Each structure stands twice: as structure tokens, then as C-alpha cells.
Amino acid sequence: MFSNLLIKIFIKKSNDVENLRDSYGYLAGFVGIISNILLFIIKLTVGILVNSIAIIADAFNNLSDAASSIVTIVGFKLSKRPADKEHPFGHGRIEYLSALIVAFMVMMVGFQFIKTSFERIMHPESITFEIIPFILLLLSILVKLWLSRFNKIIGEKINSSALKAASVDALGDVFTSSCVVISFLATKFTTIPIDGYIGVLVSLIILYSGFTLVKETMSPLIGEAPDPYLVTSITTGVLSYDNIIGVHDLIIHNYGVGKCMASIHAEIPSNIDIMKIHEIIDKAERELSEKLNIYLVIHMDPICIDSKEVNDALTMVQKIIKFNSLTKSVHDFRIVGEGNKKNLIFDVVVDSANLTITEEELKSQLISEVRKLHPEYNCIITIDNDFI
After folding, report:
1. What are phi and psi for residue 31, nearest 5 degrees?
2. CATH number for the 2-222 domain, one of 3.40.50.620, 1.20.1510.10, 3.30.450.20, 1.10.3720.10?
3. Among 66-70, 190-194, 214-218, 293-297, which stretch is predicted with the lowest mean pLDDT?
4. How confident is the model at residue 14 (pLDDT cuts 50, 70, 90)?
């Protein structure tokens, strides 16, 4: 309720998510800064008053979250910069870099407080339990719960990996703060230096959160597999146009949220008028690029569909491919040559991650299977990796 109210107050025409993506990001960032600075002040004050290293560690964790929100805002601002000579595909990946900076900041806080917590274990100090600080800590947990929900709502609305990560981080803070509250309450009943042990636990959780964020933000930078929904949307979209009878070799490059470039090969009948199919391909590129918010390039691959010899040979190869566990599909199939010397030329798609033999060994297997049935055919095979 309060999250939606904030959105309505600060973002006009909030339903226009695509054009107001930056506004959503800025709102989430500023809310995160204000919330975390308030929590830092409260927890630091409480930690100093009651002499608790666990509470102070949790306070500085909130301060790092505030710094993270600042980095997120800067990331949104810089990623919006238009393309230039040095960066023809824009600056969208800066958003991933900002999330990576946030992750390292989180880990730095974790390392620092592991050291401090161990020192507290080795040299324990008394902690005074007081009811008002205890209530303030409970309220801080409620604030973090709301902040996690708020970041999740906006992160999903604008598809922001940085804000989704912030949501998970805030939820992790709920757990760490709960541990701190329990340790603070326990000091009322025991003299064991539980504060230092909880401080170590909180620090380890902070480190784990930072490591998880690093892993999640590095993946798109390195080059992760594309969104299955986008893959399906592109392939079914291209196949919906007249005279396109097959697709393959789909490759999607991610240059930031909402900045994708895709290329795909479309199979067309070889006997169709070239100007007619060129017009269809141009239309498909234009309409699908606009509909899916991508830059789509379609390459035409003419295939023979009215030759019995070609169709029979293709059916034979498809059966061989089907019963070979290492292969997924075949495309760009054609027959070249005359008489008793003919070449079967085709590409075979494999899952390179599960390929247990070399590509040359796989080619030899396929050639052997074909020659068992048709010794007169010479196979020229290209191995393709599955990029989706």
C-alpha cells in the first residue's frame, strides 16, 4: 500500500514504465538512501550506548546499503547516456557495473566486521540491555522488510537486476538484524560473550550476500544465456511471417536492460521471388524489433523444397541426428554435384557443454552413419554451438 502510494506521488504517468524506467530507479535509490541512513543512525547510537559490536556491525551494514543506493542511482544515470563513437551500442552495461561495485562494498563491510567480532570474542566486554534500544531494533527489522518489498516491486516492474539484488540484500538484512536482536536480548540472561559470536555470524551473512551479488552481476557481463521467453518470442515471431519455413542460428547480445541485439537465420524456399521475400524479411525485422524492443537482423537461407532427392536425404540425416545423443538439429541442408559424386552439405547443432568427444570425432560418426545407407554421398559437415 505505502509502496504504491510513493510511486503515485513521485512518478507521474507511472504506467508508462518503459519511458519512465530511470524515474523508478531514482525513486528506489533515494528511498534506499534515506531509509538506510536513518537505520544507520539509530543502530549506531544504540550500539554505542549498549556497547554491542554486533549492533554496530549491523549499523555499518546499513550504511553500506545507503552507499549502494547512491551507486545504483549513478549507474542508472550513466547507463542512460546515448551511444557514441566509442560505444555504438550505448552504455547500458554500466548498470551491471554499478551492481558489481555495490557487491564489493558489501563484502568489504563483511571482512571488516569479522575481524572486529573476533576481537570482541577474545576480549569480551559487558553489554547493558535496555528496552527502548530493543524496541528500536525491532522497528528497524520492519523497515527492512518493507524496503525489501519496495525494491522487489520496482525491480520487477522495470526489470532491474540492481534493484532485485537490493531486494534480496534487504531481506538478508532482516535475518542479520534478527540475529542481532536475539543476541541483544540474550545478554539479559547470560554472561557468555554471545555478542562477538553473533557479530561473526552477521559478518558471514554479509559476505555471502556480497558474493551472491558478484555472481549475479558478473553473469550478464561475461555473457549469460538469453531469456527463454525472448528466445521463444523471436523464433515464433519470425516463423509467423509468410514463406519462412524454419529458423536457426539465433544469437542474442545483451548491452544492458532493454538494449539487446539479435541475429537469426530464416529458411525460405529457394524458388521464391527474391524481391518478394526480401520485403517480407524487412517487414519482420522492423515489426519484431519494435514489438520486442530489440535490434533484430535476419539472414535469409534459401533451401530446396521441391526436390525428392534432397527431401529424402534430409529425412535420412534427420533420423541419424535424432538418435545421436550429442546432436540437437540440422539446418542449411543441400546437395551439390552430379552423377555418382555428390556432396551432402549441412550444419549440425550440438550442446557444446555436454559434448563428450571432439567435433572431428562427431563428424566421423555422422559420416559413417550416412555412408552405411548411401555410400555415394560425401558429407561436408559444420558443427554449430547452441547459443540459447
Report:
1. -65, -40
2. 1.20.1510.10
3. 190-194
4. low
- In this structure, whether the domain defined by 307-388 belongs to CATH 3.30.70.1350 is answered with yes
pLDDT digits (tens, 9 = 90+) for 318-337: 888 888 888 888 888 888 87
Give the chain as a 3 state SS string. CHHHHHHHHHCCCCCCCCCCHHHHHHHHHHHHHHHHHHHHHHHHHHHHHHCCHHHHHHHHHHHHHHHHHHHHHHHHHHHCCCCCCCCCCCCCCHHHHHHHHHHHHHHHHHHHHHHHHHHHHHCCCCCCCCHHHHHHHHHHHHHHHHHHHHHHHHHHHHCCHHHHHHHHHHHHHHHHHHHHHHHHHHCCCCCCCHHHHHHHHHHHHHHHHHHHHHHHHHHHHHCCCCCHHHHHHHHHHHHCCCCCCEEEEEEEEECCCCCEEEEEEEEEECCCCHHHHHHHHHHHHHHHHHHHCEEEEEEEEEECCCCHHHHHHHHHHHHHHHCCCCEEEEEEEEEEEECCEEEEEEEEEECHHHCCCCHHHHHHHHHHHHHHHCCCEEEEEEEEECCC
Residues of the chain with CATH 3.30.70.1350: 225-304, 307-388
Please write the tens of the pLDDT for every residue from 145-201: 999 889 888 888 887 777 877 787 787 778 777 777 777 787 777 777 677 777 788
Would the pTM count as exceeding 0.70? no
Over 70: is that where the pLDDT of 135 sits? yes
The CATH class, in words, for 225-304 is: alpha beta
